[in-house]
Amino acid sequence: MFLLMAVLFHIVVESTVRWVFAPRSGVAKYLAEFRDKAQKDGLPLAQFAKKADLDAYLGWGRNEVRIHEPTVNTANPRTVLFVGDSVTAGHDVRGGVEDYPALLAAKLGGQGVRVVNLASRGYGVDQMWLKLLTKAGEYHPDLIVFAYIPHDLIRPASDFNFGLPKPRFHFAGTQPILSLPKGIIEYMAGFESARSGFHLSDWFVAHYWRNKEYYAPQLFPGYYRKLYHHIGEGLARLSEEWGIPVRVVKLTNYHRFTGIETLTNLAASEWVHPSVWDKANLRYLDTDACVAAKAQAMDLETEFAHHPGPAGHRLLAECLAGDLEPVLSGLPAQANAPGGR
Prior knowledge:
341 residues, alpha/beta, Rossmann fold, 2 domains, six-stranded mixed beta sheet, two-stranded antiparallel ribbon, 10 strands, 47% helix, globular, disordered C terminus
């Protein structure tokens, strides 16, 4: 009797997940979209994954870069390097023209400043940090801007964001352990196997448990505190070892999600804490007050609800220019960036 009840229970749960929950699940939707895009391109999934620039370390966005050279000839241009997400990448505006790094490049280019934009759509602060580690040295930066919106603070706790697998930090005590992302083909194969084998409910339970910090951030502040501390210490160490200033910038954004206040406060506290890297030049900037002061009659909650438009990017550029120009003016002609120039 017990076995019969267990079987019936599984059938009910599995049927509910299969016919009610899964069709509404963002994970299932993204996997179906990926397959549809591959079919539309006429490519096998493996080839389409390669075309999508999926990387075994970063997840995606490895080769995304936009470079704005100075508008005056100079033997040793000072380089400002940005890492960030879709806002910094200029999604929903003319990328390379209307995004705030491009506007800053137009303003600073006449002063012999080169702007390198490594931002990638969908990145969390973890992928920003990993991309900074792997790519920044190629551009010999004199100043690094680590720019995020609050939603980027929750993204590190999931191994699957915006339809693609991604790396994820775990912690053994305070020691960070980086789990590399599964290949999208392997990820999809696991999902399809669970669906065809009538254990899709087990797949979803495993997915949600594995990413529980993402789905219930208010229950796991310790995880986020360790993560932000790890990134903050890394940024401070990078600043000291390379001899360059680093600015962590919270960009104005009004998108709400569960745990936003907790994570925003944790990030600010862990990125401005006293560090053992006493020669680090690491500062934390929040654009909210400046944007509000300059906005005049603009409806900020509408403009910055998701991706800002051209007007929002202009505000961000104006506010950041006020902080970055004095830093750049105080830099030597050639900073001690890795490899020199």
